[in-house]
Amino acid sequence: MPEPTVLIVETTAGEPPIEFLGETSGLVYFMSMAHSERYGADHPLARAASIMKRRMKLAINPLLNFGDANAETSEERQLLEKLWQDASPVAIAARAAADAIETTDDLRDLTSRFPDLPDRLRELAQIAEWAAQREAKVRLTYAL
Q1: Is the pTM of this model over 0.70?
Q2: Among 11, 21, 78, 94, which residue's beta carbon has the most beta carbons within 10 A?
Q3: Closest CA to 94 of 13, 46, 34, 4
Q4: Per-residue CA distances from 37 to 2, 14, 116 (Å)
C-alpha cells in the first residue's frame, strides 16, 4: 500500500511543538486544489477555496505557498528556500479556513470527503502560532 502524501512544516525556531494528530494528505490536497482554483480547477476542494477567497474574502494565500520537499536540482533547492514565510499569516489563514468549513454549509458539503480537514488546519495554525511567538518563519512542503 502506498504511503500517504504528508505535509511537512518546518520552522526556523527548530522543531514545532506538536505533531499533526492525523493524516495530512487531505490538507495537502486542499492546498493544492486551492492553488489550482485560479486556473479553473473544478474539484470540490477548488470550489471550496474559491468560496473562501471570493465570496468570504478570506486571505488564505499563505496556505498556497508550499512546494515539493524532494528537491533534486539546484533550481528546485533555490525554490525551496523561497518558501520561507512569516508564521503569523499562516496561522491566521489556517484558522480562518477551519472556521469557514465548520460554519458554512456549502464548504462542509464540498470538503465532506475530508472530514478531518478542519482539525488539520487548526493543528497547522497551532504550529504556526508557536513559530510566530518565537519570531520564526515557517516553510510548508509535502512528500509523496
Answers
A1: yes
A2: 94
A3: 34
A4: 27, 33, 21
Question: Which helix H or strand E contains 93, and what residues bound it?
Answer: helix 87-103
And the C-alpha cell for 82? 523561497
Place of cell 465532506: 112
DSSP 143: E
Radius of gyration of the chain (CA): 15
Tell me the pLDDT tens digit for each residue of 20-30.
Answer: 999 999 999 99
- Cβ atoms of residues 103 and 47 within 8 Å: no
Give the C-alpha distances (Å, rounded to integers) separating 131 from 39, 82, 141. Answer: 32, 18, 16
Kindly report, residue by residue over 96-144, the tens digit of the pLDDT: 999 999 999 999 999 999 999 999 999 999 999 999 999 999 999 999 8
Backbone angles phi, psi at 17, to 5 degrees: -75, -25
Give the closest residue to 19 by CA, choosing from 101, 119, 87, 95.
119
| Phi, psi angle pair for 143, to nearest 5° | -130, 135
| Cβ count near 143 (within 10 Å) | 14
